[in-house]
Design goal:
Helix content is 59%, strand content 13%. By secondary structure, it is of the alpha+beta class. The protein has a 3-stranded antiparallel β-sheet with strand order 1-3-2. A hairpin with a 5-residue loop joins strand 2 (66-71) and strand 3 (77-82). The longest helix is centred in the last third of the chain and has 16 residues, at 89-104. The protein is globular. The mean pLDDT is 91. Keywords: DNA-binding, Transcription, Transcription regulation. It holds the Pfam family HxlR.
Length: 106
Amino acid sequence: MNFEEFKNCGLRKSLDILSGKWKPLILHNLFDEDQVRFVELWRNMPRVSKKVLAEQLKQLEDDHIIQRIEVYNFPPEVYYKLTEKGQKLGPILSKLHAWGNELNSY
């Protein structure tokens, strides 16, 4: 495989989107819910700073995996939900989860 083929490789593109320490856990938290508030996501994430969480959410939003929804109340609320593209990751991440659990048994 040459560099041009690698640059356009679907696996490389997929891993670029999912790479990031917290992105799989963010997606895991969104799969079971219609939408989740930023604060709820942050509380469900072990030891992640709000800044890093916001950066990872922004990257997922830029890749059209999640959608950011702002509600102008007092105080303002921000929700996140999976896009149709993001929902397609569910079975893939479930298989990765199962595979990782199998690794624990070796």
